[in-house]
Q: What sequence folds into this?
């Protein structure tokens, strides 16, 4: 898809702050540093629209990006920071759970994992959580440029096994360095927009 416009419209914590209307939404989740901001920027052809995900101490919000006036990316704060307090972790969990379970416009969650390593315990917990609520998941395996192409399929297989991947979901190899997977990611998103 050719992206003509992309802008952040709101940073929300509560449902009352979510944008009005019924445009399709895709939430993006992943552990901090997985490459989520880079993925968003690459998909939107921007250098720095999405900033590196919220660091501990910063307000944790859902950031809604309106794209071409026809869909939203909803950036979810990254997980897996060791230093986050129990209270912050609980607030984060509640915010995500409320959004995931109440938002009818949510078409799928884009879950980013690092292709180089097997998905972490946090990644598995997130995947299980989404499957529990029967949310379609598009797993984007990032940083593909960091391993040789000859090993890609082996790493994809390990990622699928580790997550106990649902065959109805999609897994995409991605690199924000080379643009690998970008066209595929857009076609998968466009297919979900029609559902
Ligand atoms: P976030 O915390 O998930 O938003 O992660 P960022 O997008 O800020 O990326 C974390 C680090 O990984 C940065 O140094 C990026 O330049 C790097 N990175 C992200 N995606 C890729 C990728 O596809 N390939 C390579 N080589 N580096 C990447």
A:
């Amino acid at each position: 898809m050719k992206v003509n416009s992309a802008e952040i419209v709101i940073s929300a914590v509560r449902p009352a702050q979510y944008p009005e209307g019924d445009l399709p939404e895709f939430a993006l989740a992943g552990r901090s540093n997985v490459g989520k901001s880079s993925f968003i920027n690459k998909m939107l052809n921007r250098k720095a629209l999405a900033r590196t995900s919220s660091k501990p101490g910063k307000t944790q919000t859902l950031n809604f990006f309106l794209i071409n006036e026809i869909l939203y990316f909803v950036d979810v704060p990254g997980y897996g920071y060791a230093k986050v307090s129990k209270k912050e972790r609980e607030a984060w969990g509640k915010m995500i759970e409320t959004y995931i379970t109440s938002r009818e416009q949510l078409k799928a969650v884009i879950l980013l994992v690092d292709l180089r390593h097997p998905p972490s315990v946090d990644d598995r917990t997130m995947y299980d959580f989404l499957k529990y609520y029967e949310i379609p998941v598009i797993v984007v395996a990032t940083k593909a440029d960091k391993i040789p192409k000859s090993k890609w399929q082996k790493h994809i297989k390990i990622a699928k096994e580790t997550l106990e991947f649902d065959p109805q979901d999609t897994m995409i190899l991605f690199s924000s360095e080379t643009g690998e997977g970008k066209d595929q990611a857009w076609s998968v998103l466009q297919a979900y927009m029609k559902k």
About this structure: The chain is about 30% helix and 20% strand. Helices lie at 36-43, 86-102, 121-132, 152-163, 182-193. The beta strands are 6-12, 25-30, 62-67, 71-75, 106-114, 137-142, 170-173. Residues 6-13+22-193 form a domain with the Rossmann fold fold (CATH 3.40.50.300).
